[in-house]
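Appendix B, Record 12. Input sequence as logged:
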Amino acid sequence: MYNGCKGFSIYYKLSGYVDEDIRAGNLPSNCSLIRLSIDSASYDVDVFKILSHVFLVEWDLSYDCYLCHQGGGQCQTDKTNKFHCTYPNTPNAQDAKATKSKFGLMLGTGASLFTVGLLVLLFCFREKILWYKYIRFWESNTEDHQNIETFLKNYGSCAPKRYNYSEVKRITNGFKDKLGQGGYGSVYKGCLHNGSNVAVKVLKKLKGGGEEFINEVASISKTSHVNIVSLVGFCFEGYKRAFVYEFMPNGSLEKFIYEERPDTVRQLGWPTLYNIALGIARGLEYLHRGCTTQISHFDIKPHNILLDEDFCPKISDFGLAKLCVKKESIVSMLGARGTIGYIAPEIVCRNLGGVSHKSDVYSYGMMVLEMVGGRKNVDVGVNRTSEIYFPHWLYRRIELDEELQLIGIMNEEEKQCARKMVMVSLWCIQTDPSSRPSISKVVEMLEGNIDSLQIPPRPYLYSPSTTELDSSVIELT
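Logged structural output:
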């Protein structure tokens, strides 16, 4: 038995050979020669026939050896490992050559038939796989459907209005006016019977047994706050799912802080930026403390902040939210939630501390720093390497009591406003969750005097590498 021995050859002596060791010199080092206790006088000299009814042996023959054996020849190698085919029962070499050609033709024909048969089998197997996947997809979606229907039944009258799919099509005028698109699906502008404009988010697929759909309905239906987007209703009809929200004319905050602009101009002035930051903090404070059930959002980022006609911010997209009773400070989670670039470090590395509402505080701080800088917190395209990780660059300037050199500051009041937003954000992104302020404290610091704010410790996490930057938009759920 050759354990782990690949590519070895079987050598045997024919009658008439002198009694000598005819092993070739290329026997692999991890193989050993086993002599078979078989009396050659009692058996046919053909080793293949000997082994076939005494031992179970598998081997791979070279093409030449296969033709040789099928033609009645015997495969041999000399001491230099050169292959020879002998035909002891063949009258002459010409007959041997003819026999070899005959079997070559037979082999070619057989190979062709085998190939056709294999293609037929692969096609049938492919159809079976596709059918299996369809069945599994159907079963999975059926389970999701049952989970959501059970939830809606238990939720009773607390759930928002339920629309059928034909109503959604009418509201959106046949999905005519598309506002945006993401991994979740597409958003369309719509209009209700009473003339109110709405935004309709049509979901492309469900994740986690319909958990995101349930989270959205359960979370927003429990809220009523000026800084939380209102869920007007939803559609859940077979595999067609959609949410109907109040319409936000100015879209998401994201488009106002990253777009190209002259170095001295901001799309949003500092007073507006400050009010947006304060409004988001108040919305989070309501989620963490003002609801009957504490809600942790777990995906605070500019894309999920919507702006009305007066640039009043509203927190949206509660697909990753977690609901828990207020007395619980630590949230139980099986996997990471959030978006890289905003996700709190303890969500990824649990030995840094428990996951709690402080994770939202971290995401908020990272987002406000991007509002302040008008750029991503990590940007490898800047001229100086010291500016690649924006929070560290800002911290250094505050530590040295230097000008922040931020764009669009017109007077001393705006300078103090910008400095306050930076200081509060740096407190929010502390690596240790216990070192971060609660969101209520954040509101207090933003509304208070800049002179009462102390310089926070430098966050001790290293700056992200270029490899991590490439993954900054990957969502973990």
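Confidence is low (pLDDT under 50) at residues 17-24, 130-140, 462-477.
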